[in-house]
Each structure stands twice: as structure tokens, then as C-alpha cells.
Design a protein that fits this description.
6-stranded antiparallel β-sheet
Length: about 500
């Protein structure tokens, strides 16, 4: 009874999650693949439960749904949260195309060619033929490829991107890991043990809840550029290999010791413990706390200024446009101090106000005048504005500017007594006490950022000046030619008064 209830709950949760992706306003291709993924998982739950409770022939329908999982999950892992989804190597594309072999084999070989289950409803065991063995072995291979792709995406994420992706990534990993565990029986014992379906149902419910929570409360407006080379440094293969070794050792050990245990209970607690460990490992709060603890107790300085300076310099050296420089500046501040968002404002000298440079969209509204008291405070004190501090009290317009953008910190970019720009910072992902070392590093990075912005501005002004000089030079040639032509016409008009009736003059006039 409990097993059936868990299967029903798992099916309902997966179906609701799939429908959410289907009717989502962001009708992206990834959402359609997510819908298909959830639908296939729900169908396998239904047909596997029916094969145990009603008729063993439903097991063939479960295999038919499973045959579409490898291609779907590999496509999902390639498309999920990537800026250029199909910027993958030829091997991944080939695997995606050849995944069609799974449903084709189901159609050609039929169920009896894959397995035999003489007493499925009593024992819950499915014995695999050679075809079934290779079928599930290939399925595991595709699941491992999907894990490698998801790991590559997660490793390439940074800061707030990782914060938004964390629970969705964990949910997908839970589901794929459960599928690997389920199919690994085929590799080790040439059987499928349907008695662990309750464990699978619990893991599917847990994974669906994590994915739904991530989508509803953290959003997923993430587009990550993933390097192809990162796929070759994956830990997924190592993790799966260690799992299979431990699984075989555990099975042999329990067989010889004769220890009785509840397999479903062990699997459920194992997955819950694994999710708990993943939550801790992927928590930005934990990572930052560990970093602060190490820097505080094992180093004389909180930050490695040399590495920060070199990394920032290297990042800026790769920029070629104002937009690239601005993005490098805001991303460096966001990653270094664990901020939810950052924005760059620069002084418009014609209008005398600070305008958003990056990101340029979504930051319209109250502007900050170049002669506001806050700018005077920055020029005089050379300090960073902290909204929690009472050192400086903003006036009404400045308060509206800060409140509208929900700014936590404002870092001035100084240049020879002027404030070239402002870096607005949102709340920290995990609030931690800012010390003088943090403020010193902010000022140091701000100086480097200011120089880069000024150099880029001067380069653009020089380019415009050269364009104007080229236009002026061309104009001078044109004017000189016009002057010569005007002089020639003037002489023609003067001579026409005396020689207009002479045929030779008329011919010269026409030639001129």
C-alpha cells in the first residue's frame, strides 16, 4: 500500500512540474525538454507500478518510456542554462543523434528479447537477456554523459548564477544518480530489482521538489558560457566509478556476513544524506564562511591582494570595448565580495549626472547629479558609502536614488580629485562584517577600474578626433577643388563679355 502511494505521489509531483514547464511564460526549448523529461519519469513510475500490481506486461511499456530517457536527458544537460547550448564537441552531438537507437531497439526486439520475469509480481525481479544487459549498460553511459554536462555547466557558473542554479542542479543530479543506481543492477547482477521502486519514488519526489523550488523562488535567467575543455576534467566519471566499486564491495560483504537490512530504507537515507552533503558543499554561505575562517586564522591578511590585482588586471587586459570593461569591473566586484548584483554608473559631463553604463537596461529612474552632497563626501573623505553606516546621511534625492536600486554599497571611482563613476552594489549573498581590509581592496580595485575606464574613454575620444581630422582633411581638398573651379568659371564669365560671339571661344567655353 505504501509503495503504491509513493508511486502515485511521485507521478503527480512529476506531472505537475512538467505542466509548469509546459505552460511557463518562458516558452524556451529547454522548458519543452524539461516537460518531456518529467513526463517520461512519470510514465516509468506508472507502468512499473502497474507491472507489479496488475499485469507484468506493463513492464514493456515502462521500457518504452525508458528508451526515450537517454536522448532526452542528454539534450537537457546540453541545453540547460547555457548561452550557446550546442557549442559541444562532435562526440556529444553524435551521442545525441545515436540515442534514437533506444526506441528503435524496443520496436524491433520486443519485450521478451530484453528480459524474462517468471514471477515478477511475487519476487519483483526482472532477469535480463544479453540484449537487455547491453540496453541498460548503454543507458548508464548516457546518464554519465548527462552528469558530465551538468557538472561542466555548474563549474562554469559564478556568484549569483551558481546561487540560482544550485537547487535545480541538485534535483537533476538526484534523479540521474537514482537512474544510475537503478540501471547499475543490470551491469552488476544482470537483473532489475523492482523492489527498490519506493526508494526511486522518494528520490524522484525529492528531485522534483528541489527543481520546483529553484524555478519558483530563485528563477533561472542564467546563460553560461561553457568551455569545451572543462568536459575533460569532469569528476562525474570518478564518482560513478567509485560508486560501482563500493556497490559491488557492499553486496559481496553483506552476502558473506549475512547481515539483514532494509534495502529501501538504506537507499532513502543514503540519498537524503547525499543531498545534505551537496547542499553544504554548494552553499555559497558555507563556502564564504570557510574562506573567511581560513583567511582569518591561517593568513595575516583577509584577502590575497596580489592574486586579486593580477586576476583583475588579466581580466581587464582581455577587454576591447567599453561594454567588456564595464562587465569585467562589475563581475569582479560581485565575485570578490559575494554580492547579489553590481552596476556601474559614469559621469555624463554634458548633462552633469551619473548615468548607468553597465548594465544599461533596467536602471532608469532617479539620477544622481554630479554636484550632489554625496559626491562632495566622496571627494573629501575618499571612503566607500555603506547604507548600514551612519557616517554620511543622504539627502532626499540621494535616498531615493539608493532606495530605488536597493544599493548596499556605493564605491566611488576617483581620478585627480573628481569622481569618474560609481559602482553600486547590492546585498551580499551571505551577510558578513566588512572590515578595513575589504574597504581597502574595494578602493584598490576601484583605482584600477578608473584607469581602465579613462584609458578607454580617451581612446574613443582619440578615435573620434582622428575621424574628424580625416573628414577635415578631405573637406580641405574638396574646398580647394571648388575654389579652382570657381576661379575658372569667373575667368570664363569675364572673357565672355568680349569674345562670346567668336566660334573658337564658344568651343572653348563648352570644353571648360
Amino acid at each position: 500500500m505504501v509503495e503504491t502511494v509513493l508511486s502515485i505521489v511521485s507521478t503527480v509531483v512529476l506531472t505537475l512540474l512538467g505542466l509548469y514547464f509546459l505552460v511557463s511564460r518562458q516558452r524556451q526549448g529547454t522548458h519543452l525538454v524539461f516537460f518531456l523529461f518529467c513526463l517520461l519519469l512519470a510514465l516509468t513510475e506508472v507502468f512499473d507500478r502497474l507491472s507489479l500490481n496488475l499485469n507484468p506486461s506493463y513492464r514493456l511499456y515502462a521500457m518504452a518510456a525508458e528508451s526515450l530517457l537517454p536522448g532526452t536527458i542528454l539534450l537537457l544537460s546540453i541545453m540547460h542554462s547555457r548561452k550557446d547550448p550546442f557549442n559541444v564537441n562532435f562526440f556529444m552531438k553524435l551521442m545525441l543523434v545515436t540515442s534514437i537507437a533506444f526506441p528503435v531497439s524496443i520496436f524491433l526486439i520486443k519485450g521478451n528479447g530484453f528480459y524474462f520475469a517468471p514471477d515478477l509480481q511475487t519476487e519483483g525481479m526482472v532477469f535480463l537477456t544479453d540484449q537487455g544487459y547491453y540496453f541498460y549498460l548503454a543507458m548508464m553511459f548516457y546518464f554519465i554523459l548527462a552528469l558530465i554536462n551538468l557538472e561542466a555547466t555548474f563549474v562554469a557558473s559564478r556568484g549569483s548564477e551558481r546561487w540560482r542554479l544550485k537547487f535545480l542542479f541538485m534535483g537533476l543530479v538526484c534523479i540521474i544518480a537514482m537512474e544510475i543506481l537503478y540501471t547499475s543492477q543490470a551491469l552488476l547482477y544482470r537483473t532489475l530489482n523492482l523492489n527498490i521502486l519506493p526508494s526511486r519514488s522518494v528520490v524522484f519526489i525529492l528531485g522534483a521538489i528541489l527543481i520546483g523550488y529553484s524555478k519558483l523562488f530563485r528563477g533561472n535567467n542564467v546563460a553560461i558560457s561553457v568551455s569545451r575543455t572543462v568536459l575533460y576534467r569532469s569528476l562525474a566519471l570518478l564518482a560513478v566509478g567509485v560508486y560501482l566499486i563500493l556497490l559491488g564491495a557492499l553486496g559481496e560483504g553483506l552476502k558473506y556476513t549475512g547481515i539483514n537490512y532494509s534495502e529501501n530504507l538504506l537507499l532513502i537515507f543514503g540519498f537524503i544524506a547525499g543531498v545534505a552533503v551537496l547542499t553544504v558543499l554548494f552553499s555559497e554561505q558555507v563556502r564564504r564562511r570557510i574562506r573567511v575562517f581560513i583567511n582569518k586564522h591561517f593568513y595575516s591578511h583577509k584577502h590575497d591582494y596580489r592574486n586579486q590585482w593580477l586576476n583583475f588586471t588579466e581580466r581587464l587586459s582581455k577587454c576591447r570595448t567599453s561594454e567588456e570593461i564595464s562587465r569585467a569591473i562589475v563581475e569582479t566586484f560581485k565575485e570578490t565580495f559575494g554580492l547579489k548584483w553590481t552596476a556601474l554608473f559614469v559621469l555624463d559631463r554634458e548633462e552633469g549626472i551619473y548615468k548607468p553604463l553597465y548594465p544599461a537596461n533596467g536602471l532608469t529612474g532617479v539620477s544622481l547629479p554630479g554636484e550632489s552632497p554625496m559626491i562632495g563626501y566622496f571627494k573629501e573623505k575618499k571612503r566607500v558609502f555603506n547604507s548600514d553606516s551612519r557616517e554620511y546621511i543622504p539627502d532626499e534625492r540621494e535616498s531615493a536614488f539608493i532606495k530605488e536600486r536597493d544599493a548596499f554599497l556605493i564605491i566611488p571611482l576617483h581620478n585627480n580629485g573628481d569622481v569618474e563613476g560609481l559602482v553600486l552594489c547590492g546585498e551580499q549573498i551571505i551577510r558578513e562584517e566588512l572590515t578595513f581590509e575589504d574597504y581597502d581592496l574595494m578602493k584598490t580595485l576601484a583605482k584600477q577600474a578608473t584607469l581602465s575606464l579613462i584609458n578607454q574613454r580617451l581612446s574613443e575620444e582619440l578615435a573620434r578626433t582622428r575621424q574628424l581630422a580625416a573628414v577635415a582633411k578631405l573637406s580641405s581638398f574638396v574646398i580647394h577643388d571648388l575654389k579652382n573651379m570657381a576661379s575658372s568659371l569667373s575667368l570664363v564669365i569675364e572673357n565672355a563679355k568680349e569674345y562670346i560671339n567668336e566660334p573658337e571661344f564658344q568651343q572653348d567655353l563648352l570644353n571648360t
